[in-house]
Amino acid sequence: MNLQQLSQELNLIAKKAGAFIKQEAENFDRSTIEMKGFANMVSYVDKQAEEMLVEDLRKLLPEAGFITEEGTDTTRQDRYNWIIDPLDGTTNFTHGLPLFSVSVGLMENKEIVAGVVYGVMHDECFWAYKGGGAYLNDKKIHVSDITTLEQSLIITGFPYYEETKAKQYLEILHAFMARSHGFRRLGSAALDLAYVAAGRAETFFEYNLQPYDVAAGIILVQEAGGQVSMFGDGDDFIFGKQIIGSNGHIHQQVKDTINEFWK
Ligand code: IPD
Ligand code: CA
Ligand code: CA
Asked: Roughly what angle, to the nearest 10 degrees, separates helices 166-177 and 251-259?
């Protein structure tokens, strides 16, 4: 498979879904929001964007299966599977905060080999494929070269369900606050990882994430020269519900700080 060619097509598909989301953002009616759980919203925009993506991706790679947030297609295949979050940052979207993205990763066996994160309102297309580097629109991107936590900007997310780890998480945040340039909580895990890949922040970490939140971002960080891991020793950062993405230089410092409190 020619991953470079596939990526060009993938970018167009993500941008098409993004154009739909942008158009709907202009006159979004909040009464159309449905609740999937406490503070977990979904709208017709998420669902229709996913349907568009699935239809186009089926044509692009007929032998691939799907893992999708809204469940449009749940057929899994052995070798290739698309991992799709049609609208990452739904809470931002519903409040009119312009930070949300379309995120699509292609998994071959258990590895992400291509991915796109399209920042809809800024028209920023972050994309990468295995061995080919990472890009923002048509420019190559690279993680930052900052080597100390003290000079680092950190992005995280606060899970709105799964309360059991909340206390430990707050302790972790407290420790980082005293040792860094501080935190941003942007509200789209896919964009968070893309921003680390582009050198706009040194690290992103969060727990309780799903494969569709991180799949595309993983290859972006890796191909931009950064590092991705779980909080501890495991390497299942696609399905393992916890992730650290960083510029590589500060990765161990981030891991150590998290593990002072994460039990
Ligand atoms: C959410 C965003 C958010 C993260 C949540 C995710 P959604 O995805 O990525 O940044 O903190 O855990 O669920 O629901 O907007 O697709
Ligand atoms: Ca998401
Ligand atoms: Ca979503």
From this structure: 130
